[in-house]
Design brief:
Proton glutamate symport protein, mainly alpha, 420 residues
Length: 420
């Protein structure tokens, strides 16, 4: 019964039940049953639209407040500014890794054409096909001539650029005036999160209704593709976790045995809680006691990392978007991937601290829109996000501890750890 208290588990059960009932309806061959299922599926469409209506205002609000938060953190001192620089550099590395790894993995293990066709057939209908811009149009479109129109048309890349400029501009205003406007955006973001929580509370029902349509038109053929997705997204998270190990050992110069002993209890907590914030006390303790990092460094860098740094966010989110592209047989251009990387970097900072189900939609949907991909499949993928979310957290805490060890290496007079 305790498992049923988890929203992720209830959403997953809703999907499985919907797929099963829909497949039974298809097997019955009864036209009346099919019409009833299609009518119930409309409720799932309503739920999906309720989720989508919060995406644009939430993106804008969290980006403005996130930029202000990073600027405030960087202004607190040299160590914080160095940490922000490392965070940005590692997120760029994470994006490059995700693009190379996910494309390579899907080239070696392609999505089943039959399964992809089945899942597409069962998904809600998509909107109009996106227009792929040329280089001149892409450059010109980075700055929206009309931000409101860009928001209405789901033109997410220019909206993100406008939000970034707005966030930095607000930090340059007199403190009281800038803080007032930032507080307004923070309140808007929090209000949107409340709405998303309400919508996600009905997630098991909404996903069940969407699953009915998938089961009716795709049968059990979609199950293999969903399993494939779980494997790809989890592998991407595991891959960047391993890179975090390499960074700690070869850049932070932490002996492997010492690093493994320090991270083992933190990784166990991450696996159990799926929350970097819940792991923060253990991270500070193990980094200080086992890695010999001074308290003044661990006590600043690790809370800052939990607040503004998510090492796995661009990795897994880009992997999800690339997988969706393979499902639909869409091949985004290099320019679109460049825009997607910018969006992934921005939302990885802005979405820190959001609940897992909220951050999945708010982080992946903008990347898909930047790549010209439909987002109608995302609620179905959200239902099986339980396993990839574990690897997200494992990678995040590994990255947090690795960057702390790297920064401690170059700080004046760090204490020498004993030999492993």
């Amino acid at each position: 019964m305790r498992l049923l208290k988890s929203l992720s588990v209830r959403v997953l059960l809703g999907l499985l039940l919907g797929l099963g009932v829909g497949a039974l309806g298809a097997a019955s061959g009864d036209a009346t049953v099919a019409r009833v299922i299609e009518a119930v599926e409309a409720v799932g469409g309503l739920w999906l639209n309720a989720l989508r209506m919060t995406v644009v205002p939430l993106i804008f609000a969290i980006l403005v407040t996130g930029i202000a938060q990073v600027s405030d953190a960087a202004a607190t001192g040299r160590l914080a500014a160095r940490a922000i620089g490392w965070f940005f550099g590692l997120l760029l590395l994470a994006c490059a890794f995700s693009l190379a790894f996910t494309h390579g993995l899907l080239a070696l293990w392609p999505v089943s054409a039959e399964g992809a066709m089945a899942l597409r057939a069962g998904a809600p209908p998509t909107g109009p096909e996106a227009v792929t811009p040329d280089f001149a149009a892409w450059i010109k479109g980075l700055a929206p001539s009309n931000p409101v129109k860009a928001a209405a048309e789901d033109a997410v890349l220019p909206l993100v650029v406008f939000a970034i400029f707005t966030g930095f501009a607000l930090t340059k205003l007199p403190a009281e005036r800038g803080r007032t406007v930032i507080d307004v955006f923070q309140a808007i973001g929090e209000a949107m999160i409340v709405i998303v929580r309400w919508v996600l509370w009905a997630g098991p029902v909404g996903v069940f209704c969407l699953g009915l349509g998938v089961g009716l038109r795709a049968g059990v053929g979609a199950a293999g593709v969903l399993g494939h997705y779980v494997a790809v997204a989890s592998a991407a998270g595991l891959g960047i976790t391993i890179i975090g190990y390499f960074l700690a050992v070869f850049v932070g110069r932490v002996p492997l045995g010492r690093w493994a002993r320090a991270t083992a209890p933190v990784l166990a907590a991450a696996f159990a809680t799926q929350s970097s914030l819940a792991c923060l006390p253990a991270m500070i303790e193990r980094t200080r006691d086992d890695l010999g990092v001074p308290q003044r460094i661990a006590g600043l860098v690790l809370p800052l990392a939990v607040a503004v740094f998510r090492f796995t966010s661009p990795v897994v989110n880009l992997a999800v978007a690339i997988f969706v592209a393979h499902i639909y047989g869409i091949d985004p251009t290099p320019l679109q991937f460049a825009g997607a990387v910018l969006v992934a970097l921005a939302v990885s900072v802005g979405s820190v601290g959001l609940p897992g189900q909220v951050s999945f939609i708010i982080s992946v949907a903008p990347i898909c829109l930047a790549l010209g991909l439909p987002i109608e499949l995302l609620p179905i993928l959200l239902a099986v996000e339980v396993v990839p979310d574990i690897f997200r957290t494992l990678g995040n805490v590994t990255g947090d501890m690795a960057v702390t060890a790297i920064l401690a290496r170059d700080e004046p007079n760090p204490p020498e750890p004993a030999d492993a």
